[in-house]
Design brief:
Elements (H helix, E strand, L loop, with lengths): L1 E2 L12 H6 L10 E2 L3 H7 L1 H12 L2
Parallel strand pairs: 1-2
Helix pairs in contact: 2-3
């Protein structure tokens, strides 16, 4: 799951969550959302749960 506002790491070729870190996973399903992992897990838990559901389905 990748949140657009989650900017803990600087974005760039050798940094960031996606695609730098996610490229190490091999085959994966990229689920994106607007927000960040700290704020939205507290203020919009239903949205985070929906994204986790989307990530787990086949």
């Amino acid at each position: 799951m990748y949140f657009y506002q989650d900017n803990v790491l600087p974005q760039g070729e050798g940094f960031g969550w996606h695609p730098h870190m996610s490229s190490r996973l091999g085959l994966f399903r990229l689920i994106v959302g607007d927000g960040d992992h700290m704020t939205d897990s507290r203020t919009r838990p239903a949205m985070v749960a929906q994204k986790l559901y989307e990530a787990g389905r086949d």
